[in-house]
Every structure is written in C-alpha cells, then in structure tokens.
Specification:
two-stranded parallel sheet; Fumarase C, Chain B, domain 1; 20 helices; Fumarase C, Chain A, domain 2; three-stranded antiparallel β-sheet; mainly alpha
Length: about 500
C-alpha cells in the first residue's frame, strides 16, 4: 500500500481507517515540513526573549500567570506531560490508538503548533514502526482538548509511559528501543503542543462514524428483508412519494430500498391482498432511516473538518510573527456531533427491534409463533427479540447528551467543558449495540423468508438471504441462538454482506 502523505489539511476519514486498521505507512509533505519549521523558529525566538508567552515560558491553565525561568523550560514541558497523564480505565483499542497518533501528527503538520519537525518525525516513525502508546480511555472532559489521553500518548515520546510493540505491552522506552527509536527531550511549548486538541474524541469517533454509515445501509437491508418476509407493500418507497417531501435522507433511503427490492417475486403474491397499510416500522422506513442518515451526514461534516483543524493553544502564526491564545481546543462541535451519531443509530435500532416484533408475533405476522414450526416445544426467536429490546433500552440511556453536561475544571478557568470524549465513548458503545440489533433482524428475517420459499425476494434481499443461509442454516428446532447472532454479526462487521448485496443490485442494472 502506498504511503499516505499528510499535510494537516487533507486527511480523510477513510485514510484514517487505512492507517489505523490496515497499517498504511505515513509520510510528511515537504511543504508541511516548511510550515512546521517556520512556526518553530518563531517559538524559539519568543522563548529566548523576556516577554511572557502562555505555554512557552508560563505555567498552564490557572497557573498561566506564573512565569518560568529559561533554565526550567524543559522541566516545565516534561512536568506538564507526566502530571496530565492521569487517565484511567481500559486502554483504547490498537485501531483507536493508531488513529490518535496519526491525528496528532496531522495537526502538528498544519504548522500552527510550534513543534520541532524532529518531534513530529518521531511520531510518524512510531506509527510506521508499530510503537503504539497505551492510552486509557477515560479522564478527558474535552475542554483544553483531550488532555489526559494525549498526555499518555506524549509520555512515549519522552521514553515514559507504556506502548504496544510487536504484540507486547512494554515500557515506552523499551518499545522505542526495540523499534530502533530514541525518545526526545521536549523543548519550549512542545509538551503543551502534544496535549492540546480534540484528537482522542476524534480517534474514537471517526471509526464509530464509518461503522455507523455502514450500519445505516445494513439497517435498510434488514428492513427490506423484513418487508419481504412479512409480504409488505413496496408502494411507500415510490420516488414520487418522497419527491413531495424532499429531505435528502428520505430520497436516499427510498432509492436504496427500491434497489434492494427490485425484481421481487414475493411482491406479486400479494398484489390483491386486502391489507390497507403496513405498520410504521415498515411503511415509514424512508422517513425514520432517512432522518438518521441526515444525522450521520452532519457528524461526518464535523469530523472531516475537525481532523484537519488547528486545535492548539496557543496557535503559532509564523507569517504574522504572532502567537495567539484562544479556544480552538474546545471539543463542543465534536461532542454534539457524536451525540447525534448515538441518537441516529439508536433510532435505527429502535425501529429495527419493532420490525423483529412484527415477525415473531403471530398475531401480527401471520407466521408461526416466534417463527418456530413446533412452537411450544420450541421457543424459536422469542429471546432474539428480547435481546434486541435490551440493547435498544441501553442505547436509549446512552443517548443522554454528553454535550450539554459540563463540569467546570482547573479552578474555574475551564468553566465550560464539552465532555467530547464521553460522547465518543457512548457513541462507540451504541455502534456495537446497533451492529447486534441489525444482525438479529437479518437473522430473524431470514427465518421468515424461509417460510416464503421457493418464491424469491428482491435481488438485493435474495442475495443477502442466500449469503446468510450459507453460514447459518434454517432453525428447525431450538439451538444456541448466540452462535447464530455472532455469525451474522461477523458478516456485517467484515463488510462481506453489504458488498455481496451491492454487487447483486449493481450487476442487475448493468
């Protein structure tokens, strides 16, 4: 895989995934290096002078008015890192930690941080050689950036803390040594540069969003499978219906559903039925799923901007010979966006669970109770619906917005905080729950479609059904359902199911 060249301005969410999940190597663009060096030259001039400059020759936060002697500037930077490394809890996953290291390097590459290029180079070498800091996931309020997580990241730069290397959890110094790297001694402002920013919440949030976008398409598929399994109407998905209420999400979802259902033989079996309307969980998929798509679109716009944003404090404007203390580190935009992500996915999970109920409830489906041929002797998919309900209930609790929940810190200097990392961790958990809910609906809908055989569903639905059945057989008698759920979840997580369905829909039209 060719190297990703970063410049601080053009990093995409998909490129983050390439680096974080697929170990794509990373290089610094030459023009970015020039900007980094220019900003550093200004910091060096200020550090050599006598005028106080926040973060360069002063304390931090409430201690910003405390002037630091020149001889103590290196100690100031190290003390900042070790004192702020106060995180607790489980470490970020390797994918998230790699994303965090990449995102911090990308911000430094913008040239507004004042870091030495040699320090930035160490970060890139760590990434490329697999020295990945161990970063506890809790401890950030998302105000002066993700201070605690970023401090744990920075510890490894100075040979302290812990890092993963070659599958082992080692001291930072040992991990660097085994990779043929040496720690740096931080100069003026560099400690502050490494801990200021929203990169931890973005490192958790970006992978969550990418999975959420895939899940949005998978929930469309799950819903389409349920429509076919319940012999639902395709009429509510007509293009002209959504043209008169032209929300982009409506149109996108209705078009997707039409593609999934195209070529259905099942729909012909009930053209003369006397049912007037389907339940909302089927009929209103474009409206509900479409609203979720709009929410995810908003989240993508915010994250795409944020991962290429200058979030340091102070910011170094080399061309203006100016160093400005402001508030770009505040995580409010990201916090709100990730709260919306959690709500969007919970919305999709909630309507999905209702469709599962439609299938397992014989008074609603016209199918055997809980889709079991010998119900009573067999419980069928009774508890699959219960599991989905439990996941949705927890997701609803996790939708309490972190972005409105501020606790002042730093002796009142940081008197409004974003709780962005909390929003990210909640969003990540909701994504996990939603993946299982989608898997449950697809599994249950496949059982419902068994009762409609040999008549075939729409092309996209049929392709999904056949792939699921190649991994999970029809349930004639009760068995351990968790294994079936895990098998379908694996299909979702791998991307194989969505890819198979897309090929089926595309090849039918080409």
């Amino acid at each position: 895989m060719s190297a990703l060249v970063i410049d601080g301005n053009t990093l995409s969410l998909e490129a983050i995934r390439d680096v974080a999940e697929r170990n794509r190597p990373v290089e610094l663009k030459a023009e970015a290096r020039q900007r980094v060096d220019a900003a550093r030259a200004l910091v060096d001039r200020v550090a050599a002078g006598d005028e106080p400059a926040y973060g360069i020759n002063t304390g931090f936060g409430t201690l910003a008015e405390v002037r630091i002697d020149k001889k103590d500037l290196r100690d100031l930077q190290r003390n900042l890192i070790v004192s702020h490394a106060a995180g607790v809890g489980q470490p970020l996953s390797l994918v998230e930690a790699r994303a965090l290291l990449l995102l911090r390097c990308n911000v430094l590459a913008k040239g507004f941080s004042g870091v030495r290029s040699s320090t930035l180079d160490l970060g890139l070498q760590m990434l490329n050689r697999g020295v990945i800091p161990v970063v506890p996931e809790r401890g950030s309020v998302g105000a002066s950036g993700d201070l605690a997580p970023l401090a744990h990241l920075a510890l490894v730069f100075i040979g302290e803390g812990e890092a993963w290397f070659d599958g082992q959890r080692l001291s930072g110094r040992e991990a660097l040594s085994r990779a043929g790297l040496a720690p740096v001694v931080l100069e003026a402002k560099e400690g502050l540069t490494l801990v200021n920013g929203t990169q931890a919440m973005c490192a958790v949030g970006a992978p969550a969003l990418l999975m959420a976008e895939e899940l949005a398409a998978l929930f469309d598929l799950a819903g389409a499978m349920t429509v076919e399994g319940l012999l639902g109407s395709h009429v509510p998905f007509r293009a002209d219906v959504h043209a008169v209420r032209p929300h982009p999400g409506h149109g996108l979802v209705s078009a997707h559903l039409r593609a999934l259902l195209e070529g259905s033989e099942l729909v012909k079996t009930h053209v003369d039925c006397d049912k007037v309307q389907d339940p909302y969980s089927l009929r209103c998929m474009p409206q509900v799923h479409g609203a979720a798509r709009e929410g995810l679109s908003f989240c993508r716009r915010i994250l795409e901007t944020e991962v290429n944003a200058g979030t340091d404090n102070p910011l170094v404007f080399a061309e203006l010979s100016d160093i400005v203390s402001a508030g770009n580190f505040h995580g409010q935009p990201v916090s709100l966006a990730l709260d919306v992500l959690a709500m969007a996915l919970t919305q999709l999970s909630s309507i999905s669970e209702r469709r599962v109920e439609q299938m397992v409830n014989p008074s609603l489906s016209g199918l055997p109770p809980f889709l079991a041929k010998q119900s009573g002797l067999n419980s069928g998919f009774m508890i699959a619906q219960v599991t989905a309900a439990a996941l949705v209930a927890e997701s609803r609790i996790l939708c309490h917005p972190a972005s409105v929940d501020s606790i002042p810190s730093s002796a009142g200097r940081e008197d409004h905080v974003s709780m962005g990392m909390t929003a990210a961790l909640k969003a990540r958990q909701v994504v996990e729950h939603a993946r299982h809910v989608a898997a449950i609906e697809i599994l249950v809908a496949s059982q419902a479609l068994d009762f409609r055989a040999p008549v075939k569903a729409g092309r996209g639905v049929q392709a999904a059904y056949e792939l699921v059945r190649s991994r999970v057989p029809h349930m004639a008698t009760d068995r351990e359902l968790h294994k079936d759920i895990a098998s379908v979840t694996s299909l979702l997580q791998s991307g194989e199911l969505l890819a198979t369905v897309r090929r089926a829909c595309y090849e039918a039209r080409s």
